[in-house]
User: What shape does this take?
Amino acid sequence: VNRQLIADAINDAFDAGIDAQWLIDIARETLRLETEFNKRAGFTEAEDELPSFFADEPLPPTNRTARMFAREVNVYMKEFSADKTLVIT
Assistant: This one.
């Protein structure tokens, strides 16, 4: 993902004055807020799982399926939230 390209596109469209780091910061804050909401709402990892068809049914034209599941995603998200240097790919 080219975050600078995305920031430049947003700036060109809206004269927003953001940079690539802002995208990382807003992503981290959004995920923090979503996690906090889910926690307060009583959601568990089981409710955080995608429906099985995401892993079972290939999506054209690449015929890819979901490659990560709630447990792996949640481990990554905890690391992402805690480590300000973690690289987002």
